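General statements about sequence and structure are easier to judge against a single worked case. Part of our work consisted of pairing the sequence of a single chain with a tokenised description of its backbone. The amino acid sequence and the backbone structure tokens for this protein are reproduced below.

***
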Amino acid sequence: MKSLQSRFIVTSLVAVSVSLAAASGVLIQIFADSYSERIQNELTGHINRLAAILRFAPDGKLQPPESPPDNRFLLPYGGLYWQINDATGGVELRSVSLFDYALPLPEEEHPVGVMHQYRLAGPDGEDVLVRERVLSLAAPNGSRPIRIAVAVNADEVDNARRAFAFDILPYTGALAILLVVMSIGQLWIGLRPLTKIGHDLDAVRDRRASQLPGPYPRELQPLVNQLNKLLESQAATIKRARSRASDLAHGLKTPLTVLTNTAFTLREKGEVEIADELDQLATRMLSHVEHELARARITPSAEQRSGDTHVARIIGETVHMLGHTEAGERLDWTVDIPDELRIPIDPNDFRELTGNLLENASKWAQALVSVRAQRQASSCCLVIEDDGPGVSTEMLPELPRRGVRLDHQKPGAGLGLAIVSEIAAVYDLKLVLENRKAGGFRAVVVFPNACDTQ
């Protein structure tokens, strides 16, 4: 089980079941012991009452008790029995309930006044619990020992135990349900801080917060402090790495510019072959530097973006800027994007992505560039179209590769679509590059689950 909640519930069920079963067993045993003690005390009382009503005839013969202390003694096999033995007078008296049966009492002699108890075979095939005592009673011809035994069916205790177990069963079940529900409630309350940490981490991931704000329980605060330190360290490390990459690329651009100027000087002096070689080398290195500069500006992962993008605003700014370029002034720009649309992409990365696509469209369009946003279920897609010549079918798969240029007369280093492809990979976007049936080129960028971020 991977869920803490499932583990806790199963553990609670097992613990509650075992605990209540043990508690029920103890309670049943306590009840049975208490009931058995009450039965023994009752039998002792019957012995004492029988002793009190025993009488001797003038000739010394023991007489049957005139008034039995309990009516069950008068019912054959009624469950309560007495038996009196007078060894001296050779008399054995039995209750009516014993009918034709005699209790098989032990033959050994017992001291006077000492209580004994046994479990013996009783009438009608049932075991009986027997309690007996030898008492010395005054007879006409002197005191003599009289053995008085009283018995009760043994299953009376067993039946009482069973009935008590069935009586407490519903209450035990109700208590088990209550304890499990209370355990689940305790779990829900106890895990709420962990749920809050999860929500706060979502806020950090979505760039709605930079750290876990709290407050949290004392036991979780050290963990939260460590997470906040980790987030702070990670942000600082990424910032330093991107700054160093950018500084390195910018540092290389100056010597490459000098190298380009040197090639121009050599060409003027007639060293055309060396100048061309230096020029090609500088161009390749400059292309690589520009590519690395662009990559340094890309957020390393979607979770590390600085915030979400207001699509209409950034598209509007880019179109406004391109509309003032030489290529863009002659074009008719149409933009259809809902103002409320937000997507979970770093604004700088979105500006880089759409800027390259729109710049490519402005280079190749003859009169029109169209930009629109469409919704598809929970996803959104951005469609950028132009009415230019389009791209040959065999070249379409090659477009996202770095350095691929369709026309070397057009300005650029062939990095735009490669950068677009890398940004799409970071954010798991779907990039579709295709020709329009009506002529021209279409770039479609699908943003999964983007319509939830508005």
Remarks:
- Residues 402-414 have pLDDT under 50 and may be disordered.
- The longest strand covers residues 127-139.
- The helical segments are 4-53, 155-205, 221-268, 272-297, 311-322, 347-364, 416-426.
- The two ends are 36 Å apart (CA to CA).
